[in-house]
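SAMPLE LOG
Freezer: B-3
Tube label: C17
Construct: single chain, 352 aa
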Amino acid sequence: MLLRRAWEWASGRSEIWLSLVLVVDALIAIAGIAIGKSLNLTAILSAGPLLACARCNGRVTALVAGYALALCAIVAVITGTITTTMQGDRFVVIAMSGILAVVVALVRERREKRLIWVAERVQRAILRPLPAEAGGVAFASHYQSATPGTMIGGDLYDLTMTQFGPRLIIGDVKGKGLDAVGRCADVIGAFREVAFSESDLVKLAERMDSRLSGDMGIEDFVTAIVAEFGEGEVRLVNCGHHPPVKAGPSAADGAMELLAPDRNAPPLGLRPDPVLQTAVLKPGDRLLFYTDGLVEARNRDGQFLGIDDRIATALAAPELDECIDCVTGLLLAHAGHSLGDDVLLVVAEPLP
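STRUCTURE (predicted):
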């Protein structure tokens, strides 16, 4: 088990993989020098470029092939076999292996770029970018997946402009990475399906739960909060999610309000019975919606990043985009630029 995990860890990082390949070829060359003419191992140096093409690009694979040829020449000179016919054949074997490895690396690289292009568009179709303004409310957002190579993970959001006003959902699916992307798509699909037909936010959450529960496992759940923006107010339904933060124009002085519900409700998938909240929202007020990647981020001492005066100061930035950048900067500085979970931040502000 440990060997398998070490292999997956090394093969997933091209720099480490390249280092291992170079070390393998160097060990083969050292063994060839130590054994001498009795058993010439230089042809095995072709393993270097063949291994490199599995994780490295064409240029690096070509450099590894050159490295293998150089080692072959060094071994041949030291062992005194540089002028033999068999040694010439070994040079040809390594050179042909290198050419083949470069071709394989180029084909793989082109294929991976195509797959990444398709994956990015699929992920953008699931999570549409938030508009800068909808229904008299300005929005700014930041999404950062903890899984390398993916744009989204287990956090989700969506905004729809309905006849009831703009409706926003923020959620967090159990799990993270690509395994949670499908569940995110299900939740967003359920929200888009009922957001236009259900006027009552509590019933909207219940209908979403009914729609999603049939496809969920016994241990699956989704924390979510649905917000509906109206004239001078925001209506909220919270199903086990972190409560949003409301900050007024004096947020720089630490004036914040945590919009926690009167009664906590379980997440979607666990038969929630949420309550409707209503909060006054005037021009200049800001709402920060977030997922647990923000408040559960730890520093080196194991301390969490709390909702404190630093967040209040960030929310008082002149522009919404600057506000998002400040909160993100706080998070990365606290966690040491290494996130253990997906992070989703959305800031909303009613326009005058």
